[in-house]
Amino acid sequence: MGKKVHPFLFRIGQTTSWRSKWFDLKRYQGFLREDYLLRKYLTDKLKSQGLSHVEIERSENELKVSIFTSRPGLIIGKGGTGIDNLKKELENFYKKIKTDKSSKTEIKLQIEEVLKPEMNAQIVGQQIADQIEKRVPFRRVLKQSIDKVMQNKDVKGVKIMISGRLDGVEMARTEWLVKGNIPLQTLRADIDYAQVNAYCRYGVIGIKVWIYKGDVFEDKNTKQK
Asked: Is residue 222 predicted with pLDDT exceeding 50?
C-alpha cells in the first residue's frame, strides 16, 4: 500500500524551514491553535490577492506575521491604508482566539513580495482554481498552466493533478499532467507543493501542484565549519 508524505514537511531541515518560529512547551497547544486560526483567517481573506504563505514568529510580548504575496500593492493600498485596516482586523480577530487573555501581545505585520509567482505552487494552484470556478475547460487550464510554469528556466518539472466532478459530470475522476522531472523521494530536490480547492456549483474540485526547481547542494565551506 502506497504512503503519501507532504513534500514540504518531508524536507524540513534539508531544503525547507519551519513557517512558525517559536518554542514553548507550556503554551504549545494554545500557540499551535492560534497559528492555525490566524493562517486560515488570512488565507480566506487574501487568497484572491496572490497569497503564497504566512510565516509567524513569536517573542515574549510580540507576534510578527509575515505575508508573502505576488500582489503587495493590493494589500498595502494607497498610502498604506490597506495594511493599516488589515492590522486592525487581525488584532481584533486575535483578541477573540487568544488563549491567554491576561497578557498583552503586540502584532507586527510585514508584507513580502514573491518575485516569481509562476514558480510558486500555491499561487499557481489558486489561479487554476479561479479559472475552474469560472467554468473554463479543465484540460485547457492544465495545459496553459504547465506551459506558463515551464517557461521559467529555473523550473525543472511540473505536475498538476485535479480530482472531482470535472466539467460537472456525475462520476468523479482524477486527471493530471506532468512535464519534466518530479523526484519526490530525493531529499535535496527543491519541490514546492500546494493543495487548493475550487468551489463550483456541482461540487468541490481538488487541485494539487508540484513544482521542481532543481537540487540544492550544501556549500562545502559551510559543511567544513
From this structure: no
